[in-house]
Amino acid sequence: MQKVTLKELGQLLGATVKGDDTLEIFSVATLENATQGQLSFLANSKYRDQLEATQASAVLLSEKDANGYSGNALIVNDPYVGFARTAQLLDTTPKDPPGIHPSAQIDPSAILGEGVAIGANAVIGAKVILGENVQIGPGCVVGETSIIGSNSRLWANVSVYHNVHIGHDCIIHSGSVIGSDGFGYANERGNWIKIPQTGGVRIGNHVEIGACTSIDRGALSDTEIHDGVIIDNQIQIAHNVVIGQNTAIAGGTILAGSCTIGKYCIIGGNCAIAGHLSIADGVHVSGGTNVTSIIRDKGVYSSATIAMENKLWRRNTVRFRQLDELFNRVKHLEKSAKGTE
Could you tell me which residue ranges the UDP-3-O-[3-hydroxymyristoyl] glucosamine N-acyltransferase non-repeat region domain spans (predicted)? Predict the structure, then answer.
């Protein structure tokens, strides 16, 4: 079990230690459930009443919340960020030992870096390049000419198609599919003619992709996921989508083909982003929102309506956009009416 003293944590987090700096911490927990040897945090004032009752050995607090607290504390600017960094330090997620399982199939032309771990029944295709300390879980498939950067990890049963480039320090969770064909077809007198998807997928560094998420390859150019992007479970990312740096996307969301999401965006769960449109940097889209037009300005955008006949929905959508104008007109008429009384 890994342990760290409050003094060591304070140095690592740039925190001020209040109380016994020799205390050892072995894990993190909530204020309500923490016990001795655990570190908790207060990031939301509505949990303030749990602070005095907590059994945690120490608590991460802001300077404001630390005033009057009699227990051991680490005083930081952002307790939640401090919690995240401490959790990383004390993470007990198992790592695969370096080496290749006897049942794995590795093409002779593949290049494997030092410290690579490849699990049972994994398949590594021709001309694949795996960087140092890459972990390939059991049952994974990495297709021809794909590249996975150093320290990246594929959990069990991830499928990476051909011509996919994954950066360093990435995590891809079980059941995800990277590089499947985009939904490209032409219609000839009622018959669908498949358009070969000849682009690839380019995933940056420090990207995390949740379980059972699909990222389609580009039709001609590549689908792009830039550095620092975090993607939740069960998300569909269609061909030629571009997602900007450090954007976060919650579960169940669908990004249609060729849409572009800016940097530092937050896309809530169960959203649908229409194809061939763009979203500016710093946009926050609330959960359940359907985005059907370009968003040019930073801000928070929301929508949620009940199901109705399409014709009625279209009329109501137009009317909804006119609501502010209608309100101002009514307000003006009310003022005019008062003036004639």
Answer: 23-89
Q: What is the domain count for the chain? A: 3
Residues belonging to the active site: 239
How much of the chain, in percent, has pLDDT values that exceed 70? 98
Per-residue pLDDT tens digits for 192-227: 999 999 999 999 999 999 999 999 999 999 999 999
How far, in whole angstroms, is CA 68 from its chain's centroid? 37
User: Is 271 in the same domain as 297?
Assistant: yes
| Pair (251, 187) in one structural domain | yes
Q: 68, 89, 110 — which closes off a domain?
A: 89
Quote the tokens at residue 266. Answer: 């937050």
Average pLDDT value for the chain? 94
On whether both 51 and 148 belong to a single domain, the answer is no
CA 207 to the chain's CA centroid: 8
DSSP assignment of 149-215: -TT-EE-TT-EE-SSEEE-SS-EE-TT-EEEEPP--EEEETTEEEE------EEE-SS-EE-TT-EE
Q: Looking at residue 141, which CATH number applies to its domain? A: 2.160.10.10
Name the nearest CA neighbour of 175 among 125, 217, 139. 139
Query: Where residue 45 falls among pLDDT bands split at 50, 70, 90?
Result: confident
Show the domain range for 316. Answer: 310-340
Q: Is residue 94 part of a domain?
A: no
Using 50, 70 and 90 to split pLDDT, how confident is the model at 318? Answer: confident
